[in-house]
Write the structure tokens for this entry.
Amino acid sequence: MEYLTADLYIPSQPKESLPILVLVHGGAFQAGSKEMYKDWGEKFAQEGYFVMAVNYRLAKPDYASFPGVIEDLKQAMNWLVFNANKRDLDINKIGLIGDSAGAYLSSLFALSNHSFSYRICSVIGVYGLYDLAYECKNPIIVRDVNMNERLLGLPFYGNERAFYEASPIAYVQDAMAVATFDTSFYLIWGEKDTIVNPTQSELFYEALKKANIEVEMTKVEDKGHFWFNQLPEIAGGKVSDYPNNVLTPKIMDFLHRTVRQALNGHYSKRQIQILSKIGGDV
């Protein structure tokens, strides 16, 4: 068994059970690290969140990381549940934040995994990848190595169905059939992205909206990719840098509404509605 690592950012003087944010880095499924979220981790902790920036297994030429990478996120959640009492964490108030490949992983995890031990209240996806099949058919950039094929360990052509079924967009309708599902989404992307097709975010937004899943979005018209967090030898990426400094109030407001003010206990809004109807029929 290989153990994965995480960075924790903890409020200095917590006054209540702490809501939780899990930060999932990008890197084309093959690179990246938890340290990319250092600035955001410190900022969120200052705002009163218990923050975990995670590492996960990365794909290699001879190793497909899917679906094991989803298991890595499960293990991170299990650690939070196991340590909740000791660290005074509110495991019914969890938000996921990811960029690029991290947005894909966060969204897929929230839509396809429905635990009774904790509750994922929100996902913030930044210039994410939400339909692997669509991206393979409509690449905005032609790469020597297709990152989606590397993730699954399969060639796209001849395995189109497998790529779609490994995509967050494939789970939207199924998620809404689960009474405990109660996750809100906030999608952010750059209109000038030349790494991941911006249409990915637009189509995912429309799919969530059509399924009556709460979703908000912000388009940054003058930015592309690689600006949300810090990368070696790439300028920007701090919370104080543009456009993060403009997005920060919107992100904090979204988290306040969807995570910090989430219902107490392991209840979804739809469960409350069902119970209300049952009570009215008695």
